[in-house]
Amino acid sequence: MFPADLKYTAEHEWIKDPGSQADSVRIGITSYAQEALGDIVFVDLPAVDDEIDSGAVVGELESTKSVSEVYSPFAGTIVAVNEALTDSPELVNSDPYGEGWLFEIMPTGSSVELLDSAAYEALTQS
Questions:
Q1: C-alpha dist (Å) from residue 45 to 58, 89, 105
Q2: Environment class of residue 87 by beta-carbon count within 10 Å: exposed (0-12), middle (13-18) or buried (19+)?
Q3: Potential cystine with 107: which of 19, 45, 58, 76 (Cβ 3.0-4.6 Å)?
Q4: pTM to 2 decimals?
Q5: CATH, domain range 21-120
Q6: Could you count the other beta carbons within 10 Å of the beta carbon of residue 51?
Q7: Considering the chain, what percentage of its residues have pLDDT values greater than 70?
């Protein structure tokens, strides 16, 4: 149900498997999270060059139902944000694993616990 080539957090973010600490990591929210939120109408993202702690709140997603915080799974520096979401926040709903990505971070330290797709699917079933 969830792409096997990604890792997941208990807070419903996905990340591309970082492999090594030398690469930036792209982060978004899962299809499960965007379905629970409903139609996303506004996205507040961190700024490029922001220094972030692992598990820290880095932004918000506002939907027609609620506002949800976005967390960083890694300590590091923000190296890119998805500027397309400023004008088209609905991309998070229509393509959460592609054009709806949120930000990229260059990990410089610890991470929260990362789950594989099977463990994340089990989490969403409980």
A1: 6, 11, 12
A2: exposed
A3: 76
A4: 0.92
A5: 2.40.50.100
A6: 12
A7: 95
